[in-house]
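Journal club side-thread
Mid-discussion, someone asked how the predicted structure for our own chain would compare to the paper's figures. Pasting it here so we can look after the session.
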Amino acid sequence: MDEPVALDVTDGVATVTIDRPESLNALNSAALDALLDAFDEAEEREARVLVLTGAGDTAFAAGADIAEMADFSTPEAHAYASLGHDVTRAIETFPAPAIAAINGYALGGGLELALACDLRVASERAVLGQTETDLGIVPGWGGTQRLPRLVGDETARRLVYFGDRVDAQDAHELGLVGDVVANDELDGHVAELASDLAARPRFALAAAKEAITQSHETDLAAGLDFERRTWASLFGTHDQREGMAAFLEERDPAFE
C-alpha cells in the first residue's frame, strides 16, 4: 500500500504532502497517524519551516474520510476527533513556522489543518469551507475555536452554520488566507516564503510563534508575562549576539 503522506526535507524546509489524490486527499486514520510521524521526523531533522500541502492539482485536503467515519459509534467518533486534534495541535506547536500551501479544495477537516498553520497561501483555484453541517455534524478538529479567532465571530458562525464554500479571493477578503496566487505560481511563492523564513533566526521564530499562540490561550496579563520571559530568554543566544552585532556593524547577520 502506498504511504498516505510524503515528507521531504531540503535546505531546512520540511514539505509534508498528503498523498491520497484518488480520494481528494481525504484524511483517514492512517493519514492522520502518518502526519504525526512526519511532523516528528521533521522536528528531529531540525526543520526550520514546515510546509503542508496536498498531492495532485485538485485538493489540499477535501476533509475527513466520510467513508471511514459514517458508521462510527460515539466512542469511535471521540477517538477520531482526538486524533485530529493531535494533528492540528502538532502543527500549532511545531517549533518553526508552518505554511499551508492550499492548492485546491480545503474543506472540513482539511480547512482545520490549514487553520492550525501560521500562514496560509491559496491558489486562485482553491475552495475553502467548514462544511460539516452538510453532514449533520460540526467541525471536530478545532474549527469552532480557531476560525473565530481568525475571521471574527459572526463570519465564523456564518461559515459554520451555512457550510458555505468560498473561493480563494473571498477567503482572502475574509482574512482566511494571507496570499492568493496563480495556480502555476503557488509552489514557487511558497518556496520563496519558506526560504526567507528558513534564513531567519530559528530560536527567535520559534519563540515568537509560541508567544503569539499563547495570546489565544490566556488572558492579556499572563500573555504579557510570557512574552517578557520569552524575550529575556533569547539574550545570550548566538542569534541575539550576532543579530545585534551585525546591526551595530552595519552588516548582514549570519544566523545559526
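Post-session note: The two ends are 40 Å apart (CA to CA).
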